[in-house]
Amino acid sequence: KILLTGAAYGADTIPIDLILPPGSKGASQFESWSIVIVLPYDPDLYLKDFRANKGANESEQQIAKARQDRFRTLLAANPRVTVRCLPPLGDEGPVLPLAERIDKESAFADTNLRHAHYEQVGQFIADTATILIAVMDSGATAGGEHANGSTERVVAYRRAGCPERSGAEVARRSKVLRQ
After folding, report:
1. Fewer CB within 10 Å: C terminus or N terminus of the chain?
2. Which range (2-11, 35-44, 60-69, 70-79) has the least confidence?
3. Which residues contact 81 (CB under 8 A, 6 or more apart)?
4. For residue 164, how many C-alpha atoms fall within 13 Å in the half-sphere facing its CB?
């Protein structure tokens, strides 16, 4: 059995922690499971998404550091964990290194481009998973005109079998998504 996940902090980490409990050394009922973590871009850049926002208090900074430490532990050489970084989307933006435009701390950060890469992850997981389990509010809808990879958008995509307009644009720019 394989858990295919984007490893976003929150509901995505619950099954990860069941399969590979932090600090666990004993056998578990999930020993036969493997984890495939699908990332929107390079792990070092992705780790920055776990940082506390500017102006965060000490408690928020400690929580953010714990999230980063846990993610680094997952990425460490564990034979049951595979990390797959999806290729960058075809770009139609300014001629700047992609890393500068995706890094949320960069002066050139492009939120829509970052979100489009998360949308690519969501569509990839929705297309690849045999069973899709999502945790979201019962009244949540996919709304919004921009692709952002939210759970609601991934569920709507899976149910419809195709993306709506902004999701279709992400698929068009992707090297791994079906057209």
Report:
1. C
2. 70-79
3. 20, 34, 35, 36, 37, 74, 75
4. 15
| Cβ–Cβ under 8 Å, residues 73 and 27 | no
- Residue given tokens 């036969």 in the structure block: 32
- Nearest CA among 13, 114, 136 for reference residue 158: 136
Asked if 121 and 6 count as a contact pair (C-beta separation under 8 A), the reply is yes
Instruction: With CA atoms as reference, report the closest residue to 5 among 153, 167, 124, 171.
Output: 124
The reported pTM is 0.89
Q: Are 149 and 115 in contact, with CB atoms under 8 Å apart?
A: yes
Q: Is 86 or 141 the better-scoring residue by pLDDT?
A: 86
How would you classify residue 11: left for phi > 0, otherwise alpha for psi between -120 and 50, otherwise beta?
Answer: alpha
Supply the Cα-derived Rg of the chain in whole angstroms: 17
